[in-house]
Amino acid sequence: MRTELKLIVTTGLLVLSSGFSLPAYAQTDFSQCLARLERTALDSGIRAETVDSILPTVEPREAVIRADRNQPEFLATFADYLGRRATDERVARGRALYAEHRSLLDELTRRYGVPGHYIVAFWGLETNYGSYLGNVPVFDSLSTLACDARRSDYFTEQFVNALRIVDRGDVEPGVMRGSWAGAMGQTQFMPSNYLSYAVDGDGDGRVDLWNSTPDALTSAANFLRGIGWQGGIRWGREVLLPEDFDYGIVGRDQRKVLNEWRNLGVTDIAGRLIPDLDMQGAIVVPAGQRGPAFIIYDNFDVIMRWNRSEFFALTVGHLADRIAGGGRLANPPVEDEPISRDDVVRVQQYLAENGYDGGTADGIFGSQSRAALRALQRDLGLVADGFLSQELLRAIGITSD
After folding, report:
1. Are residues 240 and 293 in contact, defined by beta-carbon separation less than 8 angstroms?
2. Rounded to an integer, what distance in angstroms lies between the CA atom of residue 231 and that of residue 241?
3. Strand bridging mode 236-240 / 136-137
4. Number of other residues whose CB lies within 10 A of the CB of residue 305
5. pLDDT, average across residues 348-354
6. Cα 132 to the chain's mean position, in Å?
7. Which terminus of the chain is less hemmed in, N or C, by CB atoms within 10 Å?
8. Which residues pair with residue 184 across a beta bridge?
9. What's the CA gap between 160 and 305, in Å, rounded?
10. Alpha-carbon distance values, 392 to 137, 140, 250, 252, 385 (Å)
11. In this predicted model, what pLDDT tens digit does every residue of 284-327 receive, in sequence order?
12. Dist CA 41 CA 51 (whole Å)
């Protein structure tokens, strides 16, 4: 194997030059994993010179694993998540940048079918409009995650694609710094998305997602069109639900034509029945019955192909609406104490032990877990909104440590 890691052995631990220590077996596993990544890269057609120039510099990063296990989309409440991101300051900055880049954004709308305020919203959420791009070496973050069991196959593919970007001569390795997950540039593209969708937006003959705003915004529009954005359709909207609404029919997987939702009494925030259009939507309640309700359309699913988080997708949609001149939520979420990941695991274990199929007890409360929770809530005589709250934990006898 060509790769050599910089190691110091002391008191039974291997201490990496980056400053943190791991048990010796973990470092041995990392070295073996790098050998696997090397073979995979060479078998994928990456030139040996490229592999040899990069792999000896790669180091595992404990902070990357910590970040992966503590993503805010998994642990924060919707009130906290939205409140930290769709701030008045970010809205004002987004409106100013929308005006500043209006000619480019209008052209992108004509060319790709994506309205400019959505592109600006993605830009704002991903890097606060290019003000913070992340500073982790991409090859360190991707190799660390490729050598971690949770999503090894995905990040192995991303690691090889990052090598391919260098191998093609697109970007110098030293420029490739980004988020803890290896996302790059002003709109935080993963390497596979860079290869598929990054385009030259300023006409200088090269793609620079780090320093060229036209390249970043044009690439974002191209990406959104490529993953299915439908022109002329909103992401969704905030709605009001009637007092006797059946929360057992909420969730992204329970779609109805809009006329059916009208017949169930769903209105816009002004109290008018939602439009009677020949399209489908689903109702989501990210903070439960006491928070806002949204009807979501097909473009919401497109946003989730960018980032697989409902909180992220709802915040993109809301921020885009506000950048375009809309107001705050009519029914803002009420803050609740966050649920720890350990308690999420306990709830998932409780569901499984009591015959509710909530999927793997992994601490990530996704759609399958919420569906199982709704079934449990119905059986307990509670409002079946699928919302994991401290009140629910107390009802089933789970208390935080």
Report:
1. yes
2. 27
3. unpaired
4. 14
5. 97
6. 17
7. C
8. 178, 189
9. 21
10. 41, 40, 18, 22, 11
11. 999 999 899 999 999 999 999 999 999 999 999 999 999 999 99
12. 7
Q: What is the pLDDT of residues 41-54, one digit of tens each?
A: 999 999 999 999 99
For the chain, first and last CA: distance in Å?
A: 46
Listed in sequence order, the DSSP H helices in 70-169 are 72-75, 78-85, 88-100, 102-112, 116-127, 138-146, 152-167
Q: For the purposes of burial, counting CB atoms within 10 Å of the CB of 348, is it exposed (0-12), middle (13-18) or buried (19 or more)?
A: buried
* Residue written as token pair 């909103």: 234
Handedness of CA 9, 10, 13, 19 (dihedral sign): negative
Query: What's the pLDDT at 259?
Result: 96
CA angle 367, 370, 371 (to 5 degrees): 85
Q: What secondary structure does DSSP assign to 299-339, as a single string? A: HHHHHHHHSS-HHHHHHHHHHHHHHTT----SSPPPP-PPP
Q: Which residues pair with 273 in a beta bridge?
A: 267
